[in-house]
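Task: encode each sequence below as structure tokens.

Item 1
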Amino acid sequence: MSMTDTVEYNGITLHKQSEYVWEITQTGEMRSPARVFASEKLLSEIGDDDTLQQLVNATHLPGITKYAICMPDGHQGYGFPVGGVGAMDTTDGCISPGAVGFDINCGVRMMRTNLSYSDVEGREKALVNRLFETIPSGLGGGGVISGDRKTVEAILTDGMKWALANGYATPDDLSHCEDGGWRPDAAPEHVSEKAKNRGEKQIGSLGSGNHFLEVQRVTDIYRDDVAAAFGLQPEQIVVLIHCGSRGLGHQICSDYVRKIEKGHPELLAALPDKELAAAPAGSELATAYYGAMCAAINFAWVNRQVIMHQTRQVFAEIFDQSPQALEMELLYDVAHNIAKKEVHTVNGRDRELYVHRKGATRAFPAGRKEVPEAYRTVGQPIIIPGSMGTGSYILRGGENSLALSFGSTAHGAGRVMSRTQAKKQFWGETVRDELEETQHVYVKAQSGATVAEEAPGVYKDVDEVVRVSDALGIGDTVARTFPVCNIKG
């Protein structure tokens, strides 16, 4: 079909506001309009499932400000769409676990090295095998650290400060992580015993699904000055780590969805989908969930940090040099599936908001105080993973992000196919062999089913997702990378 200024999907009408900006008008019980940032191609994919209905449902949340937003990689999620952003007032609004997600702080980090692609050629299999042996992955399973209750509670409280004190991090790692790798609002006392039990066994583990560790090479530079500030150059080897808070975060979300359903039935009854269950700002449950969520955020940062520590040891072994000699330094770590209290200017007035980013990335521009000092003059790094066969991107926070998206952009390619569909359409061993034979990408996973679920054909076109972000000025393209080898659960 050809696009006009108005289009309809599944009974929901969208009006084109400007290039790549589509709006769903506020009607009925909606508390705000909704907006979708997408090209015509991406919008047709977003409209193919329940994403738009979930976005409309999200506008019913109390205190939602300006509009509910769907990023170009958006797809259907639990209650609130993946790729969704919603900012709720911290005074008369709410906080919603469903608008954060089950895998709290499922984020990505990128580590630089001084190796070039030619240094790695011929060693790919040795590298992927050793990484797979050294870094635990898969559903359930153990972690690098066999923690006890005291260890878990220290991690929940101190985040990456714990990793620094225990030899898993350097001071530069903390200064190059979102929020310094520590949420001071963390409240481990609001994390259930069951969640802590799950966390004890999974410190330093990838997990399963779309989580992975990927060695990549930089193939393209688009903004020379910003790439230089990020320490990136063509053919450089970098490492991308994507995982979250594991069973601990999932349990926290499950716990609080149930608690909120029971504790605030009147608010639940006013929402079109019980999966959006929300606690009113200022309530005991809102405070408790926020503290527990921040604790899970800290856990996820430590989880990725320990995995990065293990990666440093593997590279040192394979290349017979110390991590320091290889200049294995954290470029940046960004969090997804998160709600944070942030101050944004709305209609000329500064307001504190719970900014929910579910499958979305913070994208603050140059000058914002939350951006690490090393990047404050160029903007916050953004890391957007693609699929195993398409490559990934590094962006920087765009000048329009605060006005358009509460300082947010996309977080990945976004699925177009469910895991069940993927396993029917793709055979994991075939996908793995084709990647190695045709693109020289080496993949090692716990099962062929995992590879099938993450086949390149399962995802949207990451090039298109990034192009829209860049065109809107919410995340500016800096560099592109392409896989060398990949391990996953």
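Item 2
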Amino acid sequence: MKKPAPKQPHDNHLELTIDRLNEDGLGVCRSMGKEVLTWGAFPGEKLEATILHKGQRRIIARRQRVIQPSPLRRPSPCRQAQACQGCPLIELQPRAQLDFKRQQVIRAMQEAGLKRVTVPEVIAAPQELGYRTSAKLAIGRRHRHLRIGLYRRGSHEIVDLKNCPLHHPLINRIIDVVREEILHQKLSVWDPRQGDGLLRYLLIRVSPANNRALVTLVTGRRDYRSLTHLAKWLQKKVPEVVAIHQNVNPGSGNAILGRETLKMLGAPDLRDQLGDFTVHLGPTSFLQVNHDQAARIYRQVTDWLQPQKGEPTLDLYCGIGGIALHLAAKGAEVTGVEMVEEAVHYAGQNAKRNGLDNCRFIAGDTARVVAELVARLPSGTRVVVNPPRTGCAPEVLEQVASLQPKKMVYVSCNPQTLARDLAILESHGMGVDKLQPYDMFPQTPHVETIALLSPHPELRKSRKKRK
């Protein structure tokens, strides 16, 4: 007679021993024949957890109690860490965070077959907390309670953020006042089930050098009268807010911004300081959230690229021109390429404001523009690329490699796509000479990495042989 299988417990409690951290900073182990992921759990720890979701191959669990803590665990500087789950490393000691991030880069390089690449220690950020100078926050209600914050991991539930320790203090002040005024003025907020409501998102950008802020209210429809009352009270209570804009997004998708942005009160943009340069940013312009670390990276890029006076230099995915300004200040003739037209407008204005007439910026699809530029640029033209997390399109890498740049720098916020693209560049004869990771986002698993490349014809040959 076949022996009956052991009975499974009726409750959803688990006792776990964590094996490792995954790329998202979640604790990983196995239980009940499945992979288990737990937020705020570190290698070697024993803990009690409850099952939140059970799939065919994976279980998502919530930590309830740490039975045996890791010696690398520290008290959390955030009261909402477990509820928010936006910073999975916030209870891990800073040194251990840097080690984890270095291992992420090493693993990505190894998996891409880049065996000759050496990964040095991660350069720590000057500030562990209070470094985020921009925030994109959802606005909604749950059980009639107003919430302004981030979506909980893996859901559309908004965690109401109060005094986030990663935010610049001015961001937290603005959130508090906006929350207070929405309640006081009884303003409607977006209901995704009905596809209706006024306020959808709150976008805040701060200049830490000037202690000033630009606020963008993303709405489901135009309602100038209601928003004007909110904007006036916000400026009255937080006079550091120098500009308030409205972005209209009536769509039902996950995109935060709509196509139409209107200035409501104050200045048309925000004046900021990036290293030695004064820059202006619009409500939809991209700039790194960690100013101090971004300035360090831009200086490192300039040192590595060694721009020469009068020589053409390409800056791809240039944004508002942060890197281009540094290169032009050394005398290079810089051509920046960026798809977002607003960013290109501000890049040109920022160059003029800083007295740099050796920059030009082109708006358009990167692959198309680069193909046109490469046909006219001399071999050896220096190149810097700073793409989004998805990395560069293969045709962009092929075009860049065809120039055989004397020096090329790749700036990346994603080790996996960086490694993938470096392998492609290597197959075209561009080899990595140096690599340097930076901790741009303390308390999170993300890491910024820059790579210096130059022509290595022998790599092109070795790649062909392996094929």
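Check on item 2: The chain has a mean pLDDT of 93. The chain has eleven helices and 22 strands.
End of task.
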